[in-house]
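Lecture notes, structural biology module. Today: joint structure prediction for complexes of two components.
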Amino acid sequence: MSIPCLAHLRARYCLATQFVSVDFGLRDSIIEEILSCIDRRATFRRCLFVGAALLCLYPTNSARAQDTAFHEAEDKYMFGFVDGSDIGNEGEKAIEFETTGAFQKRGGRYSAVEQELEFEQVPTQFFAYELSAHAMAHSISGVEGLDNINNVAFSGASAKLRYLIIGRGPGSPIGLTISAEPEWSRIDGTDGTQTQDYSSEFRIVADTEFIPNRLYAAFNLIYVPETEKGAADPNWQNSSGLGLSTALAYRITPTVTAGAALEYDCAYNGLAFQTFDGHALYLGPTLQINFSPKILLAAAFMAQVAGHAPNDPRALDLTDFSQYRANLKFEVEF
Amino acid sequence: MKRSPIKMLSLAIAALMLGSFASMLPADAEDSVTVNISLKDHRFQPAELHAPAKKPIMIIVKNLDPAPAEFESNMLRVEKVVTGGGTITLRIRPLDPGRYRFFDDFHQETQGYLVVQ
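The predicted structure, tokenised, for the full assembly:
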């Protein structure tokens, strides 16, 4: 019978706490245990586990040393599909590659991936704008209510105007921003067919820091009016969307932030919510990595966990919404 | 009078843009307070600046080093490159009392504070 290895138990504790709080004494005792394991010719597996624990401790202590380096951070992209209120610093310019995917509808195989190339500038301490060109790739096969299609095309252009009403910081624990994102599309985002589509996404964004420079929270109220005319359709169709989303994000290290987001979306016919079309609730994780002060990567994934479309008894609304969403942003500031 | 949603949206976008352009106007130089700071051997001198609350602030940064620096602050919401031996002027909005950290984005350990009282 093998003797329980103290380091083994402590290593399990270390892995469970995921770099959060392990003291230096524990690190020293694990080092002693490794030497002891070697002396006792302990099993390779045990030594390996203890070694892994030591590796685990390295970033722990590294992170501890950097605790004082948790300075204020921009939270614009921290929350994935949910916006933060920060708009950037006056004088900032950036190029951004943003990929947004919608996956899985009712039956068959469905993917709609949009690639945006964005130029972003912050001309004042209160205002920022983005100019974007869009391309879309659709791969649809055997999906209920949609024609099969496989195409990639330039799909349109958009601009995003962000106006900071209240800046988070001394004097205000809450940040508040409003934004408008008018967009022209020549490809229908859902079915991939040719269309003429004009829409604008309006957001009211509020955020706060529950733990200064560490734990952030954001809330968005979203309204998206849209008017669209298919290539063979003589009439314009109006629709609108209403969304409410919230997210939490925690800075694990000064450069890595992880969190979770929740979004509730409703779809309507008409610009002012005339007829209810369906609703969906999404939930998913977020991650942001700052590779350097000028380069960041933000990723988010959401799955529809509840939803319903009128006249469809089945769970989830996969007529108006996809089952999964993913978003990837890569920003290079210059 | 009932307005169509499209007209209301257009008005909202126009108001947003108007507000944005208004905010681009520089602060009145006569009302603002000027503070000076220099960079020498990758250190801010002085490392702590003081300014009154609720007044526009002009920060004049002189880089006495030969290497360029970037004066940046997420709290002040500004960033600007200052060339080696160069000088820049930053116009800051009226601030609430507090400590506002700034740093050199090219040498992140180089930092200082603007104390607003």
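Point to remember: The first strand of chain A starts at residue 93 and ends at 103.
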